[in-house]
Amino acid sequence: MKEQRTYTEQTIEDIEDGGHGIIKPEGKVVFVEGVLPGEVVDVAITRKKRSHSFAKVTAWHTHSDDRREPFCSHFADCGGCTWQYLPYEGQLRYKERFVADVLRQIGGIEEPVPLPIIGCEEAIYYRNRLDFSFAPVRWITQSEVDSGRTIADRRALGFHVKGRFDRVLEVEHCYLQADPSNAIRTAAREIALAGDYSFHDPVEHTGLLRNLVVRTSGLGGVMVILVIGEERHDLAVAFLSALKERVPSITSGFYLINLTRNDDMSPHPAIHAFGDETITERCGHLQFDIHPKSFYQTNSRQAERLYGIVREWIEAGGKETLLDLYCGIGSIGLFVADLVGSVVGIESIPEAVDRAVENSRLNDIGNARFYAGDVREILATAGGEILGAQHASGPVIPKPDIVILDPPRAGLHPKVLEMLLKLAPRQIIYVSCKPSTQARDLTVLTEQYRIERIQPVDMFPQTFHMENVVDLRLR
Ligand SMILES: C[S@@+](CC[C@H](N)C(=O)[O-])C[C@H]1O[C@@H](n2cnc3c(N)ncnc32)[C@H](O)[C@@H]1O
User: Fold this and answer.
1) Distance, CA of 57 to CA of 21 (rounded, Å)
2) Which atom of ligand 1 is nearest to the CA of 346?
């Protein structure tokens, strides 16, 4: 077996925007997991890439004063809350700095300085959705190995262990979603064991119970979606009825039959078992109906603050055309629709577009329309002859006055950037969940735009993920 390269007494210089600590032994960049600047550690290389390597800590020499004991008993094994060893104030401080750093280093942007990050009022129990997995053979933690205790029943309901599709960590309590989430998972496990339901084995591809999704809303909705791996409607209904009996606050029950090897829920229809067909979430002056498979921002309260920033920043006189690109279920466009003349949303997932249309109806918004397709293709029709697409066969998008961008982590395609520069809307508000790709895109947009302001927003406490909003004005 090849020996792992090790380095001793390395001082962590800094942390990067992916949350890893940085050391540079022999001038090479090595990312270390679970460390803070100033800490001194021994490490072993776990993975090598061309420009950098990854390492794990093998011994500690010095701990940072910033470090605290993680509050969750599953921290060592669960891949969820990777930053629990840092108090929330510290997490915010680093996130704020990451934004300034990537904007400067990748985007060459020194000014304006980002506004102070907007943190969450609740740094725990902030998620409105958790996806749990069943497994016939659970992960045995290091502390269980050390204790020498025999675990007779190894069936589990919890989260996948980081990097292991076939191993599930039995979860006693999760701090990410408020009650009744923990009560539902505990009851589901007890029902499964008492009823001797089979747990799905991803390697053998056998067994009934696969996943359990819990979705909650600020208005009291509690939706449970059970995913099963066999065509057994009777068992799914019996399981869900028993769950409703144990946790009466569940308002909506669904199940999905997934006979494939892949855990992706999207191709399979959600079958209604009991209660309401949707749960309703309020977002400022709007309401959204959430179906079992529809996307919704996982931190509802902070999503409202994020959209509030976009709303506050829009400079509109009531007549403008606003393009909401990568619009999902239309949330941002609908949130600001009353400020402009018309909203046009573009999103690649047709079901999300259906939800956007439904959400405009639900909120009595008559000036928004939505198109399903690739932003790159649909945008090419914008403004008719401006982009040379006056003879387009599909929808022709009007020339926008204001554009909202909220792309996936990869950021914008160069063609999309090129088209935006040609369309030259007077204001662009760029919402990003990956400030480094946003910084790269800003190097192109700033050829024609000046940055008015930058606002980092934390949506995901206990992790290094965050959002950043940039307000751009045509020069
Ligand atoms: C970060 S989400 C934005 C969601 C939405 N703005 C919200 O706040 O709920 C990015 C969205 O872009 C969509 N998407 C990804 N690539 C796309 C493309 N090439 N064209 C159109 N939509 C795309 C995804 O399906 C996803 O809904």
Assistant:
1) 11
2) 21
| Amino acid, single-letter form, for residue 410 | A
CATH code, 129-283: 2.40.50.1070
Averaged pLDDT, 194-208: 93
Per-residue pLDDT tens for 250-309?
Answer: 999 999 999 999 989 989 999 999 999 999 999 999 999 999 988 899 999 999 999 999
Structure tokens given for 266: 């999207």
Q: Compute the distance between CA of residue 225 and CA of residue 227 in angstroms, rounded to an integer.
A: 6
pLDDT at position 393 over 80: no
Q: What is the mean pLDDT of the chain?
A: 93
Between CA 41 and CA 9 the distance in angstroms is 5
Is there a catalytic annotation at residue 433? yes
**Total number of residues shown for the chain:** 475
Residue 64: Cβ within 10 Å count = 16
With CA atoms as reference, report the closest residue to 218 among 175, 288, 282: 282
Q: Which CATH class, in words, describes the domain spanning 6-62? A: mainly beta
Do residues 247 and 274 lie in contact, with contact meaning Cβ atoms separated by under 8 Å? no
Query: First-to-last CA distance in the chain?
Result: 60
Query: What is the value of pTM for the model shown?
Result: 0.91
Query: Is 411 touching ligand 1 by the criterion CB < 6 Å?
Result: no
The CATH code that applies to domain 99-122+299-474 is 3.40.50.150
Q: What is the mean pLDDT of residues 17-24?
A: 90
**Fold matches, 6-62 and 129-283:** yes
Q: ω into residue 400 within 30 of 0, thus cis? A: no
- Any idea where the domains of the chain sit in the sequence? 6-62, 99-122+299-474, 129-283
Cα of 330 to ligand 1 centre, how many Å? 10
Q: How far is residue 92's CA from residue 49's CA, in Å, rounded to a whole number?
A: 29
What six digits make up the tokens of 381? 């029709």
* pLDDT tens per residue across span 150-183: 777 889 999 988 777 778 999 999 999 999 999 9
pLDDT at 386: 64
Q: Measured from the CB, is residue 352 less than 6 Å from ligand 1?
A: yes
Pair 223, 249: CB distance under 8 Å:
no
- 């550690």: which residue's tokens? 41
Q: How far apart are CA 98 and CA 106, in angstroms?
A: 11
User: Going by CA atoms, what residue is nearest to atom 20 of ligand 1?
Assistant: 374
Choose the residue to mutate in 281, 326, 370 for probing ligand 1, maximizing ligand atoms within 8 Å of C-beta.
326
Half-sphere exposure in the Cβ direction for 36 (13 Å, CA): 17
Query: 135: closest CA among 226, 207, 233?
Result: 207
What are the angstrom distances between the C-alpha of 244 and each of 238, 373, 379? 10, 39, 46
Is residue 59's pLDDT more than 80?
yes
pLDDT of residue 433: 95
